[in-house]
Design a protein that fits this description.
heterodimer, A: about 110 residues, mainly beta, seven-stranded mixed beta sheet, four-stranded antiparallel beta sheet, 11 strands, about 0% helix, B: about 110 residues, five-stranded antiparallel beta sheet, about 55% strand, globular
Chain lengths: ~110, ~110
Amino acid sequence: SAVISQKPSRDICQRGTSLTIQCQVDSQVTMMFWYRQQPGQSLTLIATANQGSEATYESGFVIDKFPISRPNLTFSTLTVSNMSPEDSSIYLCSVELGGPFFGPGTRLTVL
Amino acid sequence: TQLLEQSPQFLSIQEGENLTVYCNSSSVFSSLQWYRQEPGEGPVLLVTVVTGGEVKKLKRLTFQFGDARKDSSLHITAAQPGDTGLYLCAGARMNRDDKIIFGKGTRLHILP
């Protein structure tokens, strides 16, 4: 298993602002993944973050809205830019360990 | 179109009862995972099944992968209040770059 931590655990933000979510893993991993879980919905993959290269975004997600950094093999950040109430979700980072293994998530509320 | 259908969506039963949750698809999966998620937390991986017909047990939880690897079930025996949570299935579809897709979940509430 792995220990994954995320900061912040929750935040309430104003429309039009941006929030950067940090994800730290206790071991080196090649790929880290960012998911979104909207209220009452399933988890949706936003992007895959590889160290040393640009993130790969899924259909419906773009770099301008969700810029991702992956400076080393244990850390990644996801920024939610120019937020609107529709961005209110739980944002989860994960690593692959016999299936996606998740951090505790960041609960974001946009007013 | 939901590629992984979970049923039921909601289930509220008395402590001590048995229950089964289903995860169905028309796609074939190379592996399938079950998670439990509690409010304010990330999903916690319970099990991964990879072989058609495979059965795995985790204390009072029994997981089965369908022979054709298109469906799975989670059976809980003698449910306890601590089993309350959102149960999610997820799978890596074969021949689709093994992309993981998630079901919408079954919200289970065990009444003491």
